[in-house]
Design a protein that fits this description.
alpha/beta, four-stranded mixed sheet, 3 helices, 8 strands, 19% helix
Length: 134
Amino acid sequence: MPHIAHLALVVRDYDEALAFYVGKLGFSLVEDSWQPEQDKRWVVIAPPGAPPGATTILLARAATPDQARVIGDQAGGRVFLFLATDDFARDHAAFTAAGVDWVRPPMVHDYGTVAVFADLYGNRWDLVQYSDGR
């Protein structure tokens, strides 16, 4: 059955992106391998505790001016990615302590608790704990 294996996130620099996602958010580095034929790295990360086979994020270094223009604005200013958690308070506190930039404070809705943060480039993410446990 088809499924989404990776989602590409355009970044300026692999190592600065890894410092943010792995260092600040606690993501796991799944793979970091050199692709000499394309003069780039294949850098894949996953949220902490992601189960095997879960969709991962491919950090894709911008290679052209057109690609560089979308860094930090891949969704036109809207929330781009949704990071689900089983403990909103724990993760919100950890991200805050790590210096994450909160765009919108925590709010409780019918579907759960959510706050919006910006990654190192300005892409917006929801940190969300769904009420129904999904």
